[in-house]
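#struct-help
A.M.: can someone run this one for me? Single chain, 119 residues.
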Amino acid sequence: VLLNNEGYVAEATGDNIFVVRKGVLITPPIYVGLLEGVTRNCVMDLARKRGIEVKETLFTRMDMYTADECFLTGTAAEVIPAVKYDGRVIGTGKPGEITKTLIQDYRDYVKNAGDGAQI
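D.P.: on it. Structure tokens below:
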């Protein structure tokens, strides 16, 4: 996990990062120094369509330690659950319900992209 100059979480190496806390999907805002990922934006849209609240806000390593869920997104990675950070278990140590739902929604989205991608 990469931190910006102020010590806030920015992204993983090549992937965007999300945490879930109390049912809210949280990801760092673009201005912290991360690349605005296509997969990141897609997952945020999919979450909103499900009625999941999405917040772009600053968070720290401590917020990752205490998150209910965590996952990474990227073009090659797609959506990958993260169950440990710095050797500490995140949530239950298994992919959470929101993570699993968004993995499936993203796979369905990609599978149906045969009709043409929205860019």
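A.M.: thanks! Strands lie at 2-3, 9-11, 16-21, 24-27, 54-56, 69-74, 78-81, 84-85, 88-89.
D.P.: also worth noting: DSSP finds three helices and nine strands in the chain.
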